[in-house]
Every structure is written in C-alpha cells, then in structure tokens.
C-alpha cells in the first residue's frame, strides 16, 4: 500500500540562506527543530527557501531531457565504459539496467549520467586509483544540440555543493554540535556527484520484480533530489512498514540522510529505505546529488549521540570504505548475471 506524503515535512530553510532573516535566532532554531524531527522519524524531508535559482534548475532539467532523448549511439559517445581510468571511474552515461539497487530484483528500469567536480587525470584521487574518480565526460554540445550543458551542470554542482554545506550545518546544530562540526567533511567537493536520471514508463504488465529504482538506502551523508511533477518516489515508513509516496513540490528538494549519517548518529537518525516506480505512463526525470565528503573522513558514532552506558553500534570506518563497498554491490549484482 502507498499513502500520500503528509508525513514528509516541507521545511523553509531561508533563515539559513537568506541574509534578510539570517540573524533571527528564533527562526533558525525552529528550522533546526523541524529538521531534527524529520531525521528522527523518516530520515526524509523537503526544503524550500534553499537559494538555488529556479531558472538554473529548469535549465538542468531541460538539458537532461534533451540528453536522454538522443539516440543511444550519441549517448554512448560519453558511455561510462569509456570513462578513464578504465573500469575505475563512474563518470558518464550508464544504460538502462546498469544498476540493481535491490538484491534479487531485475536491473533498474532507469538510465543515468554521472557528473562530478571537474578534476584532471593527474588528480591525486585518480592517481591513487580511488574508486569512481576520473575526469568528467562531456557530450559534444554543438553536434548534439546541447548548448550550455557543461557550463550549467558545473554551475549547478557548485550551487548545490554550497547548499549541502549549509544543510550540514543545520544537521550539526540539530545534534547539539558546533555549527561547523562537519565543515571538514567536504573541504573539497571531489566526491559529491550529480546523477541525471531518466525513468521510462513502468510497463503495465511488468513482472513483480521490476523496479524503476529498487529499494535501497543512500550510501553517503546526505542526498538532495529534484524530482519532476510525476511522482514515483516512495519511502518506507519505519513504523507501519508501508510505503509513503513523496509528493512533488515545484522547486523543492527532497533531502534524505545516507548511511554515513546513520552511523554518525548511532542510529538516532535514519538512513531510510526508498525506491521508485514510474507509474505515470510518461517519461520521468529526477536529479539526485549525492553529498559524499572527503574519502578519509572518519565515520563513527559521534560522542553526543552515544548516551552514557550506551554502546557505540558501529566501528570506525571511512567514507572511502563505505562507498567502495556499496558501489561494488550495486554494480556487481549485474556483472554476476
Ligand atoms: O529518482 C528518484 O526519485 C530517486 C533516486 C534515488 O533514490 C537514487 O538514485 O539514489
Ligand atoms: Fe536513493
């Protein structure tokens, strides 16, 4: 059963983004309280007042639609299989079925395009063979009528990275930490990545084990998702174990916590299970941004999240170890088939 999403709060974070209200302590405290409540219950909320320009959001959506509507041969000019270093970079276009996010289901009915911070081939993460890292692949804008693709996507990457740092500050405050507690986590935005996604309509007679995106939790710290007006994102309600559909709100971000946040908070905050079915009968587009910080940043329960007498539920690990393991699983389950 899927119910509507009044459970997922819509929070105006402008007291943290708009200089006009940013010295109003009461408004800021109210935002922190609402965010905390959402993190404790669903690990999902939506935000408005985020400051990312709506014309940039529209442009990124329309570039994404133009890209995915190209013939497969054109999309394959920037195929993930051509990314360098070979086999180790996840920058570029991935075909329908490249990922299987839920074990035991068919490969996901979605195609994607991964774009990260612009890094050169001699960047230290690339030289060290860190998984997923390589230079971006850019389509030929003139030939494929994608003028502005690179500029707008990089602009978007910069804006959403800035927003992520602000939301991490709100999260730090919600955990009774200094506002700048997580600042070191994303000193350099190499790891944070945009994923353009396209979901064809879910076939009416599809087998039971077909998903747009299979049930999963997100790998990193926090995800900022733009979804179009069609809906289709579902979040598991941890109490009733029913699926809640996340209603699209124009220009709002769906924000959800990833596994690193659940570990930091010793399970107080939830990295919640979610999935996608595009039952709209139309082409669905969404744009997640995965805010995964510096690879060597330690991930272990934070002292304020472990009460006296309580045990830390997780060993110390790093962002790199967490990402390697989860990425490996999501792509490996296909390779094994
Ligand atoms: O497309 C969506 O609405 C969600 C995608 C998602 O959950 C993911 O890529 O991790
Ligand atoms: Fe996700």
Automatic annotation (TrEMBL):
Cited Pfam families: 2OG-FeII_Oxy (PF03171), DIOX_N (PF14226)
Protein name: 2og-Fe oxygenase family protein
PANTHER family the UniProt entry points to: 2-OXOGLUTARATE (2OG) AND FE(II)-DEPENDENT OXYGENASE SUPERFAMILY PROTEIN-RELATED (PTHR47990)
UniProt GO molecular function: metal ion binding; oxidoreductase activity
InterPro entries referenced in this protein's UniProt entry, alphabetically: DIOX_N (IPR026992), IPNS-like_FE2OG_OXY (IPR044861), IPNS-like_sf (IPR027443), Iron_ascorbate_oxido_reductase (IPR050231), Oxoglu/Fe-dep_dioxygenase_dom (IPR005123)
Organism classification: Eukaryota, Fungi, Dikarya, Ascomycota, Pezizomycotina
Key words, A-Z: Iron, Metal-binding, Oxidoreductase
UniProt-listed GO biological process terms: small molecule biosynthetic process
TM region positions: none
Family to which the UniProt record says this protein belongs: Belongs to the iron/ascorbate-dependent oxidoreductase family.
């Amino acid at each position: 059963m899927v119910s509507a999403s009044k459970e997922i709060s819509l929070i105006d974070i402008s007291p943290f983004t708009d200089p006009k209200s940013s010295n109003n302590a009461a408004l800021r405290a109210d935002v922190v309280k609402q965010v905390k409540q959402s993190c404790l219950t669903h690990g999902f909320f939506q935000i408005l007042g985020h400051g990312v320009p709506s014309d940039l959001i529209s442009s990124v959506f329309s570039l994404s639609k133009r890209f995915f509507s190209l013939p497969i041969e054109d999309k394959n000019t920037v195929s993930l299989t051509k990314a360098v270093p070979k086999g180790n970079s996840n920058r570029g276009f991935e075909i329908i079925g490249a990922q299987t996010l839920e074990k035991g289901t068919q490969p996901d009915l979605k195609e994607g395009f991964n774009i990260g911070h612009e890094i050169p081939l001699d960047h230290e993460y690339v030289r060290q063979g860190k998984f997923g890292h390589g230079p971006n692949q850019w389509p030929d804008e003139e030939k494929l009528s994608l003028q502005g693709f690179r500029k707008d996507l990089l602009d978007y990457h910069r804006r959403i990275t800035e927003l992520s740092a602000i939301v991490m500050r709100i999260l730090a405050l919600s955990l009774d930490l200094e506002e700048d507690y997580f600042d070191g986590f994303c000193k350099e935005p190499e790891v944070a990545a945009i994923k353009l996604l396209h979901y064809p309509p879910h076939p009416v007679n599809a087998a039971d084990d077909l998903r747009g995106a299979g049930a999963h939790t997100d790998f990193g710290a926090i995800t900022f998702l733009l979804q179009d007006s069609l809906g289709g994102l579902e979040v598991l309600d941890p109490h009733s174990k029913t699926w809640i559909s996340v209603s699209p709100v124009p220009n709002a971000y769906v924000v959800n916590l990833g596994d690193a946040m659940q570990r930091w908070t010793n399970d107080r905050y939830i990295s919640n299970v979610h999935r996608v079915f595009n039952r709209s009968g139309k082409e669905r587009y969404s744009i997640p941004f995965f805010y995964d910080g510096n690879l060597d940043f330690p991930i272990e329960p934070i002292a304020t999240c472990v009460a006296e007498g309580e045990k830390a539920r997780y060993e110390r690990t790093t962002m790199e170890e967490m990402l390697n393991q989860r990425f490996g699983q999501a792509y490996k389950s296909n390779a094994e088939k």
